[in-house]
Amino acid sequence: MRYIITLLFSLSLFLTTHSQAPEEVIKSIFNDALTDNTAEEHLLYLCKNTKGRIPGSQEALHAVRYTMGALKEAGADTVWLQEVPVPHWKRGNELAILKSELGSIELTISALGLSVGTGPDGLEGNLMEVHRFEELKEMGEGEIEGKIIFFNRPVDNTMLNTFSGYGGAVNQRISGASEAAKYGAKAVIVRSPTQAMHDFVHTGVVRYQENIPEIPAVCVSPHDAEIMSRWLKKDKKSVLYLLSDCMNYPDTISYNVIGEIRGNEMPGEYITVGGHLDAWDISEGAHDDGGGCVQSIETIRLFTELGIKPRRSIRAVMFMNEEMTSTGGAVYADEAEKNGEIHYAALESDRGVLSPLGFGFGNADNERLEQLFSLEKYFRPYGIRYFARGGGGSDISPLGRFGALQIGYIPDTQRYFWFHHSANDTFEQVNIREMQLGSAAIASLIYLIDMYDL
Amino acid sequence: MRYIITLLFSLSLFLTTHSQAPEEVIKSIFNDALTDNTAEEHLLYLCKNTKGRIPGSQEALHAVRYTMGALKEAGADTVWLQEVPVPHWKRGNELAILKSELGSIELTISALGLSVGTGPDGLEGNLMEVHRFEELKEMGEGEIEGKIIFFNRPVDNTMLNTFSGYGGAVNQRISGASEAAKYGAKAVIVRSPTQAMHDFVHTGVVRYQENIPEIPAVCVSPHDAEIMSRWLKKDKKSVLYLLSDCMNYPDTISYNVIGEIRGNEMPGEYITVGGHLDAWDISEGAHDDGGGCVQSIETIRLFTELGIKPRRSIRAVMFMNEEMTSTGGAVYADEAEKNGEIHYAALESDRGVLSPLGFGFGNADNERLEQLFSLEKYFRPYGIRYFARGGGGSDISPLGRFGALQIGYIPDTQRYFWFHHSANDTFEQVNIREMQLGSAAIASLIYLIDMYDL
């Protein structure tokens, strides 16, 4: 009897989703996402209980264990881990004091990820303000040797696309240390790349070039960068004392977390939806990218809850180590290759869990793009109208080599860089409704792409 | 000599704005708005120094004085006040305790604006939960007499338009007291109308019907409304002790603040851009509507700063008493009528200073609407694409009787009701860039409408 009831129930679910118009399925996805609080609970947990989850940390492993449970609870058929080699870097004591004839003040700083440290005694040097790498070349070793270079090019706030604005300043953080070290600088201090004028520091990774001395690199809050610049104008002999006792340890192991709903018709074809589980140690990683992970788990939960049986296998992936060396995405693609998996499409949510605008599509020919753009009609009732060429994410990009469609979830990012990589990226800065709308948009798109072979 | 220099300077400004393509003028408006911090300073001042500015308050008069100065500083040719009769209502001590067989707990409540008080001793009564006004009729006096009615219909979170969701619940707050008093209720406690599930109360005005006893009306936080409902299910005899010692005093006087740039060609025709200066006493009135006032001041500042000489007279108006009895808008229209002013168009920003979507237009025939919709092309580079029929605002609606075009500024309001009418509506909840984008959009639209006679 129980068997027959189960059979009837399964059949009714099957008929439900296969007989419903796509508009109705999408409406049911939005209705559920907007009234369910599971995602909010998950985000709160990740923010408050796994804060500090940089790749090699215990906190990251805590987040791995938590999201395994969340994926099972959401209804994934199978949940498993993939070993990922990750850097193991630890922040130490930090202090920066600007000393000039005007007096001395403490600056708000943060070591850049993977930076070498100053040692426990710190270091001291004359400051030199620079806006463009070309200036380093112009000055040369004669002027730079032994100095601390202060990179102070701000983000251009008149650029409408905030990621483009960020892109115009972030090379100072990524490459500034090596560029300055070429000419003998002993350390760099970089203005935080953000449109905001506030006291938060925005950290991020520094990449050292081979065969160039590795020097300590920190970022400073935009407010303090302004003060530094003014003081330096008054007293060009200003000195910075810098302590950043961080350390790089040997690489260690962490994990990608994967939850799968097996496909009904083409189980050997995969659609991946993911975010990254690691986050900067100074932040709760709410927008970047706990929220993207939670939205991926929501795809599994919504499909399960609403009885949507995907034709292809759907995987929610919590990628590890996006922020430092992106090994999680590389491992996932390597495993896919080893197992001969067919990756049909992959979506990444890593631009904040803000009000949805739409999606960007990459790695598709014009015909496929046309078909994808035609999906906009299903999203128009929800105010989601941006369907454009170009998109993806750093974790899913290695899947591009198998021809997988690349999809980037695009929210309204006007306020994103107020949070990004800073202590201001907290649970409280997420509006749950905006996150829910994004979850529903993502799950709806995955459903449509799978259903209509797009 | 000085005269000639002034003349040449004026001429060059005239040539500058008249020779520039509209795209260039709009770009310069956005560039200035996105890099200037005057608006941020004004909003910070209003939020932190004039908090509590309900219509009849000293704080409102403080805001009147401050914005007069701000308008002069922004470059208005003339700044003046209009006397506005306003209610004078004061909140008193407040306390609500739910008592049942489960125990007793204190609830987070707030008197509704213009509500009568309970007196200093408070009152006590059995609670009865109601979702629809029809239920009151069904129950009748027999069941309602002497009870405290608990209106607990939530906002429907599945409605995409948050204002529509709010509209589906707010009649409990506006009319619930009189509806319940018809059947002998002694007080009402209303679930705060919001999509949020949190501990903030969202107040607002109550309107008493004539010839119905006026009974005390308060709102309760959504969290506490949930608790009340659960406890009432366990113990239908639950009792509420309610203290809300607020008072209505005789009407008093406050002011609209008006700043004008006189038109170059048609000074007797007016375009008004406004927000309301009063705000709920429990909130800082950042989104509602200090931000809308600041955006209106920005129109004056941007026109002045960029040398845009309007053909018609442009007025920024800080309307008084939108929240209680909307006398500010009525006085402004009455004065206009008395002075025989021609009101060409009026725009109101009163939906939060959030990321801009576009504008809604009212009081225009199809031909004018077509022309207005064609302006969308100028805003597309800024991601502003919503140009639709239907819009305005309660302060500018009385101008409709002179045929003035009605324009509502429409931002993305998905998170608006997390703040609206609550202590959560603070400066910190405003993203300055989102407000700046709105200011630029508003000033650009006013410029285009004036320039092209739309």
- Estimated radius of gyration of chain A: 24 Å
Total count of domains of chain A: 2
The CATH architecture designation of the largest domain in chain A is: 3-Layer(aba) Sandwich
> What's the mean pLDDT score of chain A?
96
Q: From the structure provided, what is the oligomeric state, counting identical versus distinct chains?
A: homodimer
CATH C-level class of the largest domain in chain A: Alpha Beta
What's the helix count of chain A?
13
- CATH topology label of the largest domain in chain A: Aminopeptidase
Pattern of helices and strands of chain A: HHHHEEEEEHEHHEEHEEEHEHEEHHEEH
The portion of residues assigned to helices of chain A is: 25-40%
* Estimated structural class of chain A: alpha/beta
